[in-house]
């Protein structure tokens, strides 16, 4: 079962990156990506329960599935509130659900901090001029379009904050 959890985690990283890419390119996050991420989390949940010695702890502990679902629902509610005040797009609000599921309750504080830092860095980078030798490249042309429209694809920042949050335990382990 640990191999299945690793495969699911790898697929979820790919889908998160795809969500960020589509948000960058189109300012939209398709429902299919969000639903696929929720389905992957459900598969991960089944794998965790089947491989767990203590099913109660796996389900109801704050570091278990209960904490993950609580984090996902809380973040989704926050996303809907931000969408209602027109601070976020609907895709960004929906993306908060799978992000919360995957980072869990204990990942919310690092995620919030990373989201703040990456958001500020993104806004500062968008103020910098694009160097002329690379201004003709499609990526930088899109950055110019984002700058001109003043619509920031927050899904990109959210995904990178989530992936860094998911990588923190691995980084801590490598530093020991």
UniProtKB/TrEMBL annotation:
Keywords: Membrane, Transmembrane, Transmembrane helix. InterPro entries: Prepilin_IV_endopep_pep (IPR000045). One of its GO terms (molecular function) is aspartic-type endopeptidase activity. Residues 13-123 form the Prepilin type IV endopeptidase peptidase domain. One of its GO terms (cellular component) is membrane. The keyword Transmembrane helix applies. The chain crosses the membrane at residues 32-50, 57-85, 105-130, 151-171. Coiled coil: none annotated. It comes from the Bacteria. This is Pilus assembly protein CpaA. It comes from Rhizobium leguminosarum.
